């Protein structure tokens, strides 16, 4: 059955062949069982043979239809397989793009940790601010790159990191003014 609930061309051809083979089998049985002892029985047997010969022609036609349906199904399957292969390549390429962007995101996280460590170790606040600005700039660049590659979630995450780093940088700037 196809998606629409209708039998496929292949199924219809196979069913038609099966029905014609059953009809042929029955006609052959009738011709074989007919007694040949009267003129009427000879006519009945001859008629059965004639119908069986006609059925044999229809069987051959149905076999041809089935062969054509099998060939069409094979062509469609090959077309579908080629489409799947192309889609698999597209998915693999997209996975590679995501992996690269996520690796850059991990690098941002590492840079942010380093800036935090500098702050905890009492480093020069100007140096900490410069490092934080670099992280924010890199996050902005990563967000733009992710948006260009239609990676909405990653773009939003990068923007969130950028905003958080800039907010923290502003707090460090306030500390620097007080100190």
Would you write up a description of this structure?
The chain is mainly alpha-helical and 179 residues long. It has one domain (9-178). Helices cover 88% and strands 0% of the residues. The protein has helices at 9-33, 39-120, 125-148, 152-178. The longest helix is centred in the middle third of the chain and has 82 residues, at 39-120. The chain is rod-shaped, with a radius of gyration of 39 Å.
In short:
The protein has helices at residues 9-33, 39-120, 125-148, 152-178. The chain is an all-alpha fold.
Contiguous low-pLDDT stretches (5 residues minimum) are none
Radius of gyration: 39 Å
Number of helices: 4
**Beta-strand content estimate:** under 5%
Q: Level of helix content?
A: over 70%
The string of secondary-structure elements, in order, is HHHH
Structural class: mainly alpha
Q: Mean pLDDT, rounded to whole units?
A: 91
Identify the overall geometry. rod-shaped
How far is the N terminus from the C terminus? 78 Å
Number of domains: 1
SS elements, strand count: 0
Tell me about the largest β-sheet.
none
Task: Give the arrangement of secondary structure elements.
Layout: H1 9-33, H2 39-120, H3 125-148, H4 152-178
Helix pairs in contact: 1-2, 2-3, 3-4
Task: Offer a few descriptive terms.
179 residues; mainly alpha; 88% helix
